[in-house]
Amino acid sequence: MNIHKKWNRKYKRLIFVSILFLITAVLCTSAAVIYRKVSARTVTNISRVYLQEMTTQISSHFQTNLNSQFSQIYTISNAISENDLKDEESLKHFLAQAQKDNDFTHIALINSKGIAYSPDGTVPALSKISNLDKLLDGSEKLISVNESIWESNTILLGTAMTPVSFQDGRLIAVIVGIHTSDIGVKLGLDSEKDTNSYTNIVTRNGDFVMKSGFSEEILQGTNLFTIYEQQVDFDEGYDYESFRAAIAAGKSGLTLMTVGGQHVYLYYVPIQGTDWYMITSMAYETVNDQIVYLSQFMVALSVGIFIILFSTVSAFFLLLSHREKRNRELLLMEKERAESANRAKSNFLSQMSHEIRTPLNGIMGMVELGKNHLAEPERMRNCLDKITLSSTHLLSLINDILDMSKIESGKIELHPEQFDLGRLLRALTTVFHVQAISKQIDFQVFLHGEVEEYLVGDALRLNQILTNLLSNAVKFTPAQGHVSLNVEELRRDEYWIWVRFSVRDTGRGIAPENIDSVFEAFTQENSGIVRQYGGTGLGLPITKNFAELMGGSISVSSEVGAGSTFTVDLPFAPAAVGRDTERCGNGQRVLVVNQVTELEKHLAYMLAKENFQVDSVSGEEDALHKIRAAVQSGTPYELCFIKWNISVDMRLFVQVIRKEAKNAGLIIILTGQDQDELNDTASLCGADATLCRPVFHSDIAELMAELTGQKSVQPEQEISTVLAGAQVMVVEDNDINLEIAVALLQDAGAFVTTAANGQEAVAQFSGAPEGFYHLILMDVQMPVMDGCSAAQAIRALPRQDAKSTVIIAMTANSFNEDVQKCLDSGMNAHIGKPFVMNDIIDTYTKVLQKQVEK
Ligand code: ADP
Fold this sequence. Notes:
This protein is an alpha/beta fold and about 850 residues long. It is about 50% helix and about 20% strand.
């Protein structure tokens, strides 16, 4: 289906491109044909436009220059001073100077009688200049050619002037002569050289006013029209008569002809302000060359534009299709991701349901079994133990799910507090030591160097992180394997102490391609793992989230078949109590037996730091030898630390050591990881004390205090006293929970009354005498009236004990806002469900203490 669609798309695209190409090709071909057809007409039209433009320009140039000549002549007439008019000599001198300055061929002043005064002398001019009488009669300007006053080929320009008296007449006009050979330069006509054309100026009769040098060679004669009439073949459509008629009518136009063997275009235009015509001709080849060049340029331009257009459209189209493809891929990827997330979630659900059902089955089965053996206490205890185990497992599963949903909804919160890292690690050690033994795995907790004991951070989350990592390590490591938790202080500054926790195992390892996804929620390496090891795939994502929430990070390195190392770096604030810098030892000699591996040497390291003189030995023989030598040297050992599970019989070894020491004062201390085991072995073999790893400064301090009899005896827990005799009301709508709470409280010596909802609780409290109730344990979610409303109602009652009676909320909702809601309603504290008796006692005690402090 998909392939079919793809083909369809490709096919459509191909058709589109082909049509585009075809249309462009057809357009180009038609353009070429039309171009050919119109080209002849176009050539003429273009020539006309071209020549018209050129001739008009030359003509306007000519006129401008002519005007400038006239203004020069005016200037001369105005420049005549009285001095110049003193006598004929002075006038001649003036005129000669003016002629020279202005580069004129001739110059003369005319008086009212028609006499011309020139630098060469005086001549009567009237008969020699055809239109002079008009000028004398007041006409402003005169332009003519070939007047007999001067030689032929001379243009005459004349203008009236402000009359001045001279001798017996009045000078009233200035005339100048410019030789036609100078006219090109003088009147700006030399541009013909640049344009490969030539320009002639003729009178309306065809007499040359100015004949270009080139025309001189091919146009033999003095009248252009006579030449055209006799020497020229007009092209078809043009003839001599029309040409003459156009000129006679003062029109401008184009004609084509062959003259002197050359095919030329001819453009004629009247020169404004004169009676003359400017006729420009240009060789056909030149025009054609220009046009061919122009059309070639146009074709090249069109082809270029076409290529650019085509490339742009194609590029646009390609880009569009590329983007469309990319979008499709992204959509597909998105879809796949969503599907895979969905798959992971449904796998997770079925896995989860399996995980929850297993302990639930266990609980139900054991309850059933217990019912059948009510009279057999041993069997009954066994069933109850298993029920406890399954419930704990179930609770941790549910906690995981809740944690994950809190993480996903961004509701997870940290509760930083001061805690004892040593105590936390020892509790973990105890739990995993037992698990490791049952799986025949070697499990060790190692400290590297000195590690700060009291820190501020979220101990609960740290515990969860380490528990998750250690559970996995133990789960994925086969019998005879090794699992270790390594703790070291990385660095510290004024505000933070960075601690590194590494969990190493020699288990199955993780394949490199899966290593990144183990931190993704609902993901396990493969389904085989689920079948073999169970699990939800939530542990590591939760761990990673916690670590990052605490400001730290987690990483993993692993090799399939060799094992994995998960490393968590976390920052903690230093505790307010600070580090106890007082050293426990005062130079006593100490022997450490069988703590020999690099990591086990930590005890020796710590003892040396505490100011003991430490010797370490690896075997029993060496130990005895050392003790003997010490006695002989007069400086016997005072303390001897022995790892509890050395190979020889512990009882025998301790006896032998004591004998060798010859000193009843040698204190023998057993070291190990499990306090119960240590206690059992110590009492069996007669050791003096025990020391449970991992060892911090305070452990050595406590041991020394214990040995020297300084250890303060811990006060007995006040379980029995705090609640003994107290009147407690339990408000709870769930019968089973109510029963459990009542039974536990009664065991602790309390007198218990119950209420099934808030309303009943308020009624009972109101009905009781003042000061009757010491404590009310209030469920929050209840029918009729919820816990918060009930607490508010009780606090609002007009009686002495309404404010003082302790009310503690019991709720399964343990988000900060839930706790705050309880406190706002007037309750004193909050405990989360499920709870144990100690939680009630601890919370109640704290509330009482606070009330006393107030
Ligand atoms: P769970 O263990 O409940 O399935 P986790 O999130 O803790 O979930 O672990 C996810 C997956 O990571 C495990 O299913 C396993 O495939 C892999 N894994 C985690 N820790 C280890 C380890 N120490 N050795 C080998 N594989 C591990």
